[in-house]
TrEMBL record:
It is an enzyme of class 3 (hydrolase). Gene3D superfamilies: P-loop containing nucleotide triphosphate hydrolases (3.40.50.300), PriA, 3(prime) DNA-binding domain (3.40.1440.60). Its EC number is 3.6.4.-. GO terms for biological process: DNA recombination; DNA replication initiation; double-strand break repair. Residues 14-97 form the Primosomal protein N' 3' DNA-binding domain. One of its GO terms (molecular function) is DNA binding. Keywords: ATP-binding, DNA-binding, Hydrolase, Nucleotide-binding. SUPFAM superfamilies: P-loop containing nucleoside triphosphate hydrolases. This is Primosomal protein N.
Length: 578
């Protein structure tokens, strides 16, 4: 009779592993079925012991024919479980993709030794096209396993096609959620066996069973696609950095400008910095509110339309607008967080989601959108240049046959259209939006936009010529900008000098769920930076944002873990805050 330590696939557990008996010898990482309490579940073999006074139950059956998880995956799961305060079993089994039970049974690998590689890490700053070319060049230098992580499946498909065309002899795999069960099982077995491969995938590819990983490339690590929305709620940039440490491998961080986290790593000499500067023609114009008087700018727009060029007007990030009272002409400010931007369609505060129905000055319900909105941009264009009305694509559905597009920043960055001109009509308002990291997002966006080589980028607003940030953007002086940003974040203990913790809780009503978070913050002696709620009529979700100094994080984690329940989880250092 054999005794094994088994990690059960559980959402909650007071300990990580339990002892089970087996009639047959088993391998580390093999999946078995076990009884736990009154139910049955899967478990992973993670060790063997000669005797155990706690082993009273037998393994019910062997599920996989051999090893499924590796020692390195267990180490990564332990780090993610500790960082995100999730049970180890739930975390480890989240690595395993959705597969048919028949394909899981076929999973089997062997314990492979792997070489130590050059432990180098660096930031590569350039356009998206140049970054992808660099990843391909570096991956072709390896005869081991390479991982390239991209935020979009379309880009994954295109890059893998390019790589197969350049180097047909290389074993190249795409890895994303659209793959069939058999394809996922094939990749899993290939990697766990230590065979050479280049994986181009989404965030889930970081959790694969690599055994000889020589290089990790992660592109645009602040993309929202890298925030996992299922347990253990990890952030892919964090996982990539931990994976690099576990394998002592090389890491390339591709960005249009470095994240604050990457830049601090560069200042601390943990990362190298390589810049392949893209020439972008950035110019500054007066406020778009004066568009009717800007004759030379109107002429520029007309010429572009007549030549069938593509022009993009970049609107607010989340279709934000300002509100003004029709009766007293007062500009509305959110009474909850003092923010002045609201959702254009429903009047909800863009920062804290508090509903604003009445003017705080005269209590009138007659509130009107003004200024910063997609509709305002469209109306200004049509008023001054009525002849271009039919050239404007509707904002609700992009018509690529048109010449003028009004897009939010995310749509503009991911567009397949190569623009001849990109215009920020309210750049002065965008750069002053009250949100952590918002200026970094705008800077990053401008140098990540899909434009032609001779295209113009035009920033519009009041007093921009005298503005330091606008000058930094125009001159691609991201180092000066990031030094300023780093000093501000250090002063207020914000990431990467502190932890940004978003605690998400569910309850039956908005009052209950907000009250629950308020009590939790009081018990933990924390100040809530923002509190917002949303959800269905039956279940409400409240999200509270907290900041914790790095030197207090480990002790704070213990208290936080005790305070969490099965209807409360957290996200740590999401893309918004890095």
């Amino acid at each position: 009779m054999y005794v094994y330590k088994v990690i059960p696939k559980l959402r909650s557990s007071s300990q990580d592993s339990f002892d089970y008996l087996s009639d047959s010898p088993l391998e580390f990482g093999q999946i078995v079925e076990i009884s736990f309490g009154k139910s049955k579940t899967f478990g992973a073999i993670v060790g063997q012991t000669k005797k155990s006074k706690f082993a009273t139950k037998k393994v019910i059956r062997i599920v996989s024919s051999g090893r499924v998880f590796t020692q390195k995956q267990l180490l990564l799961a332990q780090q993610l479980s500790s960082q995100y305060l999730r049970p180890l079993g739930e975390t480890l089994f989240s690595f395993l993709p959705t597969m048919n039970i028949g394909d899981i049974k076929k999973l089997s690998g062997r314990d492979n030794s792997f070489s130590k590689f050059k432990n180098k890490a660096g930031i590569y700053v350039s356009s998206q096209e140049n970054r992808e070319s660099y990843y391909l060049q570096q991956s072709l230098l390896s005869n081991n396993q390479v991982l390239i992580v991209l935020p979009e499946i379309d880009r994954i498909k295109k890059l893998s096609f390019s790589l197969k065309k350049i180097a047909p002899q290389k074993k190249v795999f795409q890895y994303h959620s659209f793959l069939k069960s058999q394809q996922k099982a094939k990749i899993w077995n290939h990697l766990i066996s230590g065979k050479e491969a280049i994986i181009i995938g989404t965030r889930q590819s970081l959790l694969l069973p690599f055994s000889s990983l020589e290089l990790i490339c992660i592109d645009d690590p602040l993309d929202f696609a890298y925030d996992e929305d299922q347990s253990p709620y990890y952030q892919a940039f964090f996982v990539a950095r931990r994976l690099r440490e576990i394998f002592s491998t090389s890491l390339i961080i591709g960005e249009s400008i470095p994240s604050v986290t990457s830049f601090v790593g560069y200042l601390q000499k943990k990362l190298t910095l390589t810049i392949k500067k893209e020439k972008r023609k950035v110019s500054i114009l007066d406020s778009f509110n004066n568009f009717s008087k800007q004759l030379s700018f109107q002429k520029f727009i007309l010429q572009k339309v007549q030549s069938r060029s593509k022009i993009c007007f970049v609107g607010p990030w989340k279709n934000q607008t300002k509100l003004r009272c029709v009766d007293c002409n007062n500009e509305v400010i959110c009474k909850n967080c003092q923010n002045s931007y609201f959702n254009q369609s429903n009047g909800v505060c863009a920062k804290c989601t508090n509903q604003t129905d009445l003017c705080p000055n005269c209590q009138s319900p007659n509130l009107k959108n003004f200024g910063f909105s997609y509709k305002a941009i469209e109306q200004s264009l049509e008023r001054s240049l009525p002849q271009i009305k039919n050239s404007i694509s509707p904002s609700e559905k992009i018509d690529q046959s048109k010449n003028i597009f009004i897009l939010n920043p995310s749509e503009a960055a991911k567009s397949s259209i190569q623009f001849d001109a990109i215009i920020f009509p309210y750049f002065d308002l965008m750069k002053n939006f009250a949100s952590l990291g918002y200026r970094h997002k705008i800077f990053r966006l401008i140098y990540n936009l899909p434009i032609l080589s001779d295209a113009k980028i035009i920033l519009m607003g009041e007093n921009l010529n005298d503005d330091k940030f606008t000058s930094q953007v125009k001159n691609f002086d991201f180092e000066s900008f990031l030094r300023d940003e780093t000093l501000d974040r250090k002063k207020f203990q914000m990431p990467p000098f502190g932890k940004a913790i978003e605690i998400i809780s569910k309850a039956g009503s908005e009052d209950l769920v907000k009250d629950k978070l308020m009590k939790l913050s009081k018990n933990l002696n924390l100040d809530i930076m923002t509190l917002r709620s949303d959800g269905t009529k039956k279940t409400k979700t409240a999200k509270g944002l907290f900041f914790v100094a790095t030197n207090k994080w480990e002790s704070f984690k213990k208290d936080l873990k005790k305070a969490l329940d099965n209807k409360t989880h957290l996200r740590i250092d999401r893309s918004d805050y890095l």
